Amino acid sequence: MVAYIIRRLLLIIPTLLGVMVINFALVQFVPGGPVEQAIARAQGQGDVFGSFSGGVQTELPGGDSSGAAANSEYAGARGLPPEFIKQLEEEYGLDKPPVQRFLLMLGNYARFDFGESYFRKISVVDLVLEKMPVSISLGLWSTLIAYMISIPLGINKAVRDGSRFDTWTSGLIIVAYAIPGFLFAILLLVLFAGGSYWQIFPLRGLVSDDWESLSLLGKIGDYFWHITLPVLASTISAFATLTLLTKNSFLDEIRKHYVMTARAKGLSERKVLYGHVFRNAMLIVIAGFPAVFIGVFFGGSLIIETIFSLDGLGRLGYEAAVARDYPVVFGTLFMFGLIGLVVGILSDMMYVIVDPRIDFERREG
Prior knowledge:
Elements: H1 2-27, H2 34-42, H3 82-92, H4 98-110, H5 124-159, H6 164-178, H7 181-192, H8 216-254, H9 257-264, H10 269-287, H11 289-299, H12 301-307, H13 313-323, H14 326-354, H15 360-364
């Protein structure tokens, strides 16, 4: 197992390198970079994409709309002095060739130096640490609720395999899995957040404005009041796969010889199920917890956090991509990729811990 873990750890380097190379290359062809964002803000447009329409010249106070920078490669740079454009390029490090910028970025990332946000003037690490509790909270509660629903439901489906209950619940699970998370989130807002029907839950945020002044019980209640709808929206598709995994795992164990032997000894079905089958069938379900958490954490955070106005990592990544805040984009991409790869190794270790019979080295051989 040690040799397997070492090989997996060594594979992290080329995997991360490949991810960064592909994304860095794609960014070079994306219009509206950080310099154009700064130009748009300097001209009071607020958004770089307004400068792509062409034919509209923005005159700066005391300046000429044609300007010395009229031939600049940056859209919307008319009226701005070339020195200002050059200063922006130097500030953002865009005055160097792409290959040199990429190598410098890799050297910094090797020291876990992710730089500073272009527009927020805060280090990427501090920014991620500031937003991470919201995303972890959302992912953790979604995963726990998914397990609380999936395990008992999957066990009941396995015990009553082929019954009307199994058929109807399978239909509901398929429907739940097919519903996109963002569509279910919007439906929840319309129904329960004052969209058109009931104003039961808040529309946005993780806590109320007066959260600091609440008592301890008031803070706990306010927190769960705000997080209910986002967690439900994140859980809708996560529990479907987990339920079917639990059912199939129990069915595989129920059909094994040791179960028939236990029944032949006169043990009750309940004792056979929970005394023998349960601990064996749950191995794969429990071992998959890290992977399920990461799937919920990364998969639904962007859309759910944006819809419910939660200030987490998903929303941070979206805003950074729109603003072309490259240090945040590449820094979070590197960290998320590293976390995902490490969690993959932890998931494999969990399988070995809960079931020592699994030997990844022998399988690779």
